[in-house]
Amino acid sequence: MQAFSIPSDSMQNTLQRGDRVLVDKLTPWFGWEPERGDVIVFEDPGGWLGEGTGGSGGFGAAVQDVLSKIGLMPSSEEQDLIKRVIAVGGDTVECKENGPVLVNGLPLDESEYLYPGNTPCGDRPFGPITVPEGRLWVMGDHRQDSLDSRYHQNLPYQGTVSEDDVVGRAIVIAWPVSRWSTLSVPGGYDSLSSAAPAALGLAGALPLVLWRRRRLLRRLEQGEPQERAAAAEVAEADARG
After folding, report:
1. Is 83 considered catalytic here?
2. Catalytic hit among 76, 83, 146, 149
3. Residue tagged active-site, from 10, 76, 146, 149
4. DSSP letters spanning the chain
5. Which of 43, 106, 222, 228 has most Cβ atoms within 10 angstroms of its Cβ?
6. Which pLDDT tens digit goes with each residue over 21-68?
7. What is the pLDDT of residues 58-113, one digit of tens each?
């Protein structure tokens, strides 16, 4: 785990400026990959932040560097960002004016975390954009106050973030104590996960239905005159579409 400080309002109301979150940096070593809905910390992909201040130096900065390495304080370099994963590699994501965000053509229910009064894409409609494999489309929960993927489409890979730049997954708000809570994947992403299996099931059922229909026709054609006449009517209906 490592502690990170929230420096801005871009993830309100999920995260407030000054919150301390604990980030799981271990699971990526064991094959974890960011999923839709995860809140992640990632390094500046290049061009998202200005040049780092690098801290003021001296004893205080040295102490903070040591504590950041063991997870007790955020880094003094302030070159990490925190956003929510909206789409992963292979997804197509878009948002027309007034929303909603569409992922693979399906509307995303963001009511659980979207900042009150915000629209899903604010004044920055985008897409459709196909996210390259190994990259992520990320957005802040406070859409009208978040310089996220929408604002970096002029950069290589259209504003997506490489999974290699991901530091870890934010899993809990640790400070202040009054705001302690876990950061789980919102329920609005469940429909995106179940859509693909459902579509595959439909695709698999169609050949079975056609096979059963052909089998019935063969039986009718081999039966009595009335059954042969029925088969002819079925075949004629198929020909008409």
Report:
1. yes
2. 83
3. 10
4. -EEEE--SSTTTTTS-TT-EEEEE-SGGGGT----TT-EEEEE--SSSS--------HHHHHHHHHHHHTTSS--TT--EEEEEEEEETT-EEEE-TT--EEETTEEP--TTTSPTT--TTTT--EEEEEPPTTEEEEE-SSGGG---GGGGTTSGGGG-EEGGGEEEEEEEEEESGGG-EE-PPPGGGHHHHHHHHHHHHHHHHHHHHHHHHHHHHHHHHTS-HHHHHHHHHHHHHHHT-
5. 43
6. 999 987 766 777 899 999 999 999 888 886 433 343 444 444 435 544
7. 444 444 355 444 444 444 455 789 999 999 999 999 999 888 999 999 999 999 99
